[in-house]
Amino acid sequence: MEDTDKQLYWLRNRLAELEYWRDLERGGMDRAIREVHATERRLLAEPQLGRDIERQGRRSAARGVGRAGCMSRRAELMGRLIDFSRIENDGRLRAALGRIGQEFSRLRFPETMATLMKSSDPHRRRRALVCMAGAGAALEPQCRDMVRLANAVAEQCGYAGYVEAKLSFEGLTGAEVGALFRRWRDRLMPVWREATSDATRRWGSEIPPHDLLYALNTGGRAQEAICRRSACDGVMIRLLERLGAPLEAWPVYISRAKIPFNGACYRVQPGRDVRILLSRALTGYAACFYLFHEFGHAAYYSHCPQGSEMLIDSQLSREIVAEIWTRFLQNAEFLSELTSLDSRRAEAVVAARARYDGCRLLLTIRDSMFTFEVFRDPERPWSDVWSQVTDEWLGQGDPSGAFDIYDMPNPMDTKNYAIAQAVATEWFEEALRRCGGRLSPLLLEAMVARLYHPGNLKDWQDKFTW
Ligand SMILES: [Zn+2]
Fold first, then answer.
1. 179 shares a domain with 83
2. Taking 90 as the threshold, does the pLDDT of residue 425 lie above it?
3. Which of 65, 162, 243, 458 is the most exposed place for a label (fewest CB within 10 A)?
């Protein structure tokens, strides 16, 4: 088992490097990437591996102590990975997800979302929503077949359905996700009501569905002034100095390129070679935000355990640590210390952003719950499910009939972004309280000691609880 764990670690490092070059449009990477995935599937399907893990489980008397404890945790995590990869790597399910993924790249969902959020032309926004509604309706039967298949495969593997299988792989239950989301809905509902009624006032009439994101987004225009793109690196450099670890001390290489996404981080070799790519098109607050988010990933890979894939945190946990870094921008005092904004402007930017983020979080929660619901009952018309979920989580219906199936090619990943936002905010609030509320090396020390060094040796739910 130790050997497989090590091999997986090197394979995923290799994969990160290949993806880095692919994203920089160096040709010939796709075949090599497919080969890495195939090798990983072969490793996990090895029958000897299952027997090894069982043996390791029997030796678990020393669980929780020293090397034996570490080995039993690695065996437990590997067992979960093998279990879930039996579902994820089912040939028919992989083919169905691959086909949906291809349809999605043709539909250009990110561009449509960007139009809905940013285009000042109401006709373009309306066309974008009509296009999304059409795409959702056209893809519904194909997605429904995939959902039925995913549930059937999960049932064959002993789960009640795909939702239960995926959550248990991630160390979660549906009840826990529901409780977290409800807590945040209650916290954010007043923000949502205020933002939508303000937007309606500015609009002069009821906001049509295709204008909602735009109307909420324009409330935060002050953010655009935060800094020019060229000044973003300076903001990060100043932050790292205050945290006692100047940029040169990190094994992190940042570059900007023409890429079809906002940014990404690549763990080419954790602790030694971590790369960040950012879109050249980003400006204003977004340029800083994505730099901080990706640096959060890079900070984790700079200090995480090395040589064992099982000890690298799950995708969900890694999103939380990345989000934590963006919280430095969401504190007015820090923002004015790190940029040239005076404290009054900094407060205005942070307030506008907090309101916008609150609305986005509620929307992401609604989108996540939609996926949960269609997996629980795929047979209902999905526009009905969307409308009911919107009513339950946003306190208002959505008569547009346009449901968002963005989550379908990687089912149930959207919820990670909602959980990450919520947990990151809670963790950072408490970290600041304990570290004197100022930018100081204590903050970074707490992140390294509590979140990065233990890796997945500690369950993520314990890790993010103070
Ligand atoms: Zn991320």
1. no
2. yes
3. 65
Give distance in angstroms: CA of 297 to centre of ligand 1. 7
CA distances from 441 to 242, 274, 305 (A): 7, 22, 21
pLDDT value of residue 57: 65
Residue 207 pLDDT exceeds 80: no
What separation in Å is there between the alpha carbon of 401 and the centre of ligand 1?
Answer: 30
How far apart CA 319 and CA 364 sit, in angstroms, is: 14
- Most confident among 197-211, 263-277, 349-363 (mean pLDDT): 263-277
In sequence order, what are the residues at sequence separation of 6 or more whose Cβ sits closer than 8 angstroms to the Cβ of residue 203?
Answer: 211, 215
Same domain, 323 and 456: yes
For residue range 22-78, list pLDDT tens digits in order.
Answer: 999 887 899 999 999 999 999 988 888 877 787 776 665 455 556 767 888 888 898
Domain that holds residue 276: 174-463
Mean pLDDT along residues 406-433:
92
**CA 55 / ligand 1 centre spacing (Å):** 36
Q: How confident is the model at residue 206 (pLDDT cuts 50, 70, 90)?
A: confident
81 and 182 belong to one structural domain? no
Measured in angstroms, how far is the CA atom of residue 313 from the centroid of ligand 1? Answer: 13
User: What is the distance in A from the centroid of ligand 1 to the CA of 423?
Assistant: 14
Residue 331 has pLDDT above 60, yes or no: yes
**Alpha helix positions (H), 204-305:** 212-218, 229-242, 284-303
Å from CA of 298 to ligand 1 middle: 10
How many whole angstroms separate alpha carbon 132 and alpha carbon 127?
9
CATH code for position 314: 1.10.1370.30
Residues 271 and 412 in one domain: yes
- Of 57, 89, 121, the residue at which a domain comes to its end is 89
Give the pLDDT of residue 223: 57
Q: Are residues 84 and 194 in the same domain?
A: no
Given a contact cutoff of 8 angstroms between Cβ atoms, the answer to whether 271 and 291 are in contact is no
Identity at 299, one-letter amino acid code:
A
210 and 85 in one domain? no
Q: How many domains does the chain have?
A: 2
